[in-house]
Amino acid sequence: MTGFPISEIRESFPSLESTDEGRRRIYFDNPAGTQVPRQVIDAVTDTYLHHNGNGGVFNSTSIAADATATRAHEAMAVFVGCDDPGEINIGPSMTSLTFRLAQGLAREFEPGDEIIVTRMDHEGNVSPWLMAAEERKLTIRWLPFNRDSWRIEVEDLEPLLNERTKLLALNYASNLTGAVNDIDNLIRTAKSAGALVYVDGVQYAPHHMIDVERLGCDFLAISPYKFYGPHLGVVWGRRELLEPMQTYKVRCESDDLPDRFMQGTLQFELMAGLSGTIEYIEDLGRKVNGDGDQRNLIRAAFQAMEAHENGLTQLLLEELTSIPDITLHGPANSNSPGNRVPTFSFTHKTQKPSAIAEALSREGIFCHWGHNYAFELAKVLGLDLTEGVVRVGLAHYNTESEVQHMLAFLRRVLA
Question: What is the model's pTM?
Fold first, then answer.
């Protein structure tokens, strides 16, 4: 963590100064949504002040709105590592976009074709495929995860693949356990069987750089509000798959990409904030001595964020797993931070997750509890589906003192 400009970073996030009854907030609810930097706030505010309108006509506000949408698609293309902004779909949420794409893709499959979904995924990458399969009379195959490695293993995937397999939907990292899948091998295995691969990268994107061309998947979904941006969803998809796909749109909408997937009036102010998100990450790359083009600056930023977060992860894992009667649901090896993102879910032998979460929140330590929409995963782990787990997660603006404060308070509560 040497040389990481944590003070400058925290100054970039105005909400980190917020207090409740004089108590400063500690944001450990990051897996559910991060705070936003000034670049995002300023971009959204500027749009409302100077460019608030609709696109498609000749006045200055409309021209600015169209340019805002174009910049947002270009920024997201850079972020995920593709050269074609037309391959970027932006919408209200990852889940809504996945439902839309699942409907379109399923219309190209035949009754009896198969879709593989996992016991590890967020419902946003499960329910859309279940509903599409029901409507098109497709067969669902369930892919388990390994309880020892906490990951989906290739040897469990291979027996499910056959000539009828059309698509594998899986996550890059779990939003409940924090486990990171060996996505490269899983994608390669599925593609070798002729299947499309739809990756939920929502929990991975705030912590590690995304490169869709290197991965070789066909679709990748992310949520900007979980990597310091506005409440939007983004899905990258290959042009050769998006162009012929039957999509749900009004008849008079263009068939060009990305227009054919843009339903209704665009959220221009949020798209402006999305570009501000990438500006912030690039600026962080410069602060940590990165140089070169946008991708190199983003790479430098993520390398610095990873190093900082890995130090906090090791501290939190070592201390959390030493608290009596706590069960950590996820990888616990503090010497292998690469096996997980900094999302931690736990239960206690006697105290309910809701009670623990309420106590933490009263102390100003923000967290989440419940199954967190990892519905199948919660069932496999035998969790109470009402109570679920206590979930805390780190971001690069968190500090060692915040982690120590949370751990000390947690020990007192559980004692």
Answer: 0.96
